[in-house]
Amino acid sequence: MKKLLRNKAWGLLLLPAVLMMSSYKKNDVWSFAVISDTQGSHEIEDCINTPVLEKIAADIVKEKPEIVLVLGDLVNGWIRNYGKDYKDQYAEWKSLMKPVYDAKIEVYPIRGNHDDGPERFVLKPLPAKLEPKPGSLEKLRKAYRDAFKEYTYIPLNGPKGEEGYEYSFEHKNAFFIGMDLYNSGQHRVNQDWVANELAKNKQQHVFIYGHEPAFELIHADNLSYYPDERDLFWDTIGKAGCRLYFCGHDHVYNRSLIPDSSGNKIRQLVAGTGGGKLRKWDGVYKNKRVKGEYHNQDFHGYAIVTVDGAKVTVNWKALNESNGSWKLMDSFSYSSN
Q1: End-to-end Cα distance, the chain
Q2: Residue extents of the structural domains in the chain
Q3: Of residues 208 and 127, which shows the higher confidence score?
Q4: Mean pLDDT of 215-240
Q5: Which CATH number is associated with domain 28-335?
Q6: Most-buried pick from 55, 72, 218, 251 (CB within 10 A)?
């Protein structure tokens, strides 16, 4: 059951979660939101893109999803912190998301590279000015975890030592896995844990999310750094019925279709448009297996995913920052049948 795996020190069984699962009916229609990369940029000189995140939070409340997936890079973290302590950065993020929390919408974050530390393998050498001070990354890791300890619906069922950083949970007729791609070494999935979690699933839909794309667009630091491990991961989730992998990292919105080795159709949805500086892309996927379906690099925004029985519909909403209005820019559907 959702949310029943808990830290023994808390000793809590959350009865509302049980009631939620037992009250689910086959034809219920429900939704969840997906946001990523809400950090600030050089232009605004802040650790969070406050104007964008405020508007996203307000619109999420209007959309009334039941949960929100946050795909990492919540804050600038270790780089360009503008004098703000790590714990203060996350406190500010939670303050901006307060309308969402107040609406009783559950928020499920994972870490991105800004929440972890500098890239050590792909981007060499690391400029001296980007080298964190000794002990600072340990403080950043703790600040992130401490920030979300109060939300006891976040499961503590991750691998040993990674509790609260990555986890799986059920919601109605869906099974979610939120992966931390930095605990097992950068750009890596904890393959055994993911496979074991998927083996337990009995739900109709499987949604998996991590910060980095599995197949490269812009940044070279992604799961493609270990292509054989990435392909194993893709085959594992495809066999388990996952048809959507959500990620961020690249500050664009991109939808692509990438079958696994058995022909299972999986879409990679890059939704890194939550506030970070938007990036230009040349339109060329580094892997020929990838079939592009839609791309937008001109707007910040977020996605709303609606689950209606076997049908899943994804709508990506773009923000007009000049007047605060929203426009539906991409929509697609598929069936789990």
Answers
A1: 23
A2: 28-335
A3: 208
A4: 97
A5: 3.60.21.70
A6: 72
